[in-house]
Amino acid sequence: MRVLIATDGSECSYEAAREFIRLTHAMRHEITALHVVPRLTVGRDIAYLQIQEERDALAALNTVKSIFDEVAIPIETQIRQGTPADAILEIAREGNYDLIVIGHRGRGGFRELLLGSVSKAIIQKAACSVLIGK
Predict the structure, then answer these.
(1) What is the model's pLDDT at position 94?
(2) 47 — alpha (psi -120 to 50), left (phi > 0) or beta?
């Protein structure tokens, strides 16, 4: 089974990864952890913001990787630019993933208002099964 673990660096996304492990009893799957960074195109501080977004992405992916390392399951990691829901759905479709694992809410605050509910969009539009972690 091909599994796409979407993380935004929130505790909910990490808990979703842990829930997947509990539900599958750490069975072997082909797993990719994904973090989507926004496309930044306007403003004078774009380079700094882009570097910060990429650092945050690497930190989130390393946390998910360490969760799977605890149960000795290797995973791949991937960073993609774009709108989170659209990028997750596109990668899931392109990679013929059987399951998307995502937290029920993200980092919140103003950013969440701008992006809308990623998990809701994934549920409504995914062509595969979706596991929403608590």
Answers:
(1) 96
(2) alpha
Q: pLDDT per residue over 32-48, tens digit each?
A: 999 998 876 666 667 66
CA angle 119, 122, 125 (to 5 degrees): 150
Nearest 5°: phi and psi at 4? -110, 115
Backbone angles phi, psi at 21, to 5 degrees: -60, -45
Full-model pTM? 0.85
User: Tokens 């992916």 sit at which residue?
Assistant: 61
9: which DSSP letter? S
Give me the architecture of the 2-133 domain, per CATH.
3-Layer(aba) Sandwich (3.40)
Alpha-carbon gap, residue 30 to 78, rounded angstroms? 13
